[in-house]
Amino acid sequence: MDAKKELTMRLWKIVPEQADRIVTILEEYEITRTSERGELDRCVEAFLTAKRLDGLSQKTLRDYGGVLRAFSACTDKPAGQITADDIRLYIGGLARRGLRESSIQTHVSTLRSFFSWLAAEDTIGKSPMCRIRTRKLDRTATRHPLTDEELTRLREHCRDCRERALVEFLATSGCRLSEAAGIRLEQIDWQRRSVRVLGKGHKERTVFFSAEAGKLLEAYTGSRGGGASLFATARPEHRPLSPRSIQRIIREIGQRAGLARRVHPHILRHTFATQALKGGMALPVIQQLLGHEDPKTTMIYAAILPEAARRAYTKIFDRKEQDHE
């Protein structure tokens, strides 16, 4: 017996003289048992636990959890009864709220991963996401590096040595925000201007920073008088700067510089990759420095800068032809 019929019969027994009115009123509602709603929440928590055991980062788990809990709050059905139409209604609601296309695709990708996992675990029969097509994003449009002029303005509007060191390090190392926030002074090889960072999937790699970044970092860490982290708070205990704090600092510098767009640490990572390609650095080297597992991700920069790719091609192949002449 479904939940609405069960509730109707219970109400009839309590007030049998109002049976017709009860039916009329309940026709306007969808009724779901509390236990069914809780079932979806339990599935979400089981999924997050499984992904935590798989080694996903805390940030990824938070992102997954935010999307899935938002979806669960909008859905009264248990996981096995959710249909493709339910998903489409939810996605349509996100679009009406004005979410960016990239954010909507994050929701779609997360739901696809979630329901595929439920199907693989035999919790549901078939994923409702099978009928949901993922629109292909123009990934080149999401890569908007700073121009040389914008980067100069950003540098000029730093107020102290910490801000100058932070901007220079992010712009010349290509580190992700989470990687930069996790660096400890003991990890740094000052002579080689390199540092081992822990990237996505708990994979380590070596990144480098410029001579100017090295000078600024040494000046900054030497002047603050303590702390084990590379970037730390100004308070006496010098605790590590959180990723959110670093985001705020970079955003505020961008605002002081009068840049028309919002500046965040990932823009500096894109700027590093773009400058490396413009300078003739090989794509496999850029891939290694950025920590991209898939070469296609790095190839996006070649799509953004076809002239740089052409120069790299000419440098190798045209020179070969000249040598044969």
From TrEMBL:
UniProt keyword annotation of Signal present: no
GO MF annotation terms: DNA binding
Residue intervals passing through the bilayer: none
One of the GO BP terms on file: DNA integration
InterPro entries: CB, DNA_brk_join_enz, Integrase-like_cat_sf, Integrase_catalytic, Integrase_recombinase_N, Integrase_SAM-like_N, Tyrosine_recombinase_XerCD
GO CC, any one term: cytoplasm
Keyword entries, A-Z: Cell cycle, Cell division, Chromosome partition, Cytoplasm, DNA integration, DNA recombination, DNA-binding
Tagged with keyword Cell inner membrane: no
Source superkingdom: Bacteria
Cited Pfam families: Phage_int_SAM_1, Phage_integrase
Protein name per UniProt: Tyrosine-type recombinase/integrase
Organism in which the protein naturally occurs: Candidatus Oscillibacter excrementigallinarum
Lineage: Bacteria, Bacillati, Bacillota, Clostridia, Eubacteriales
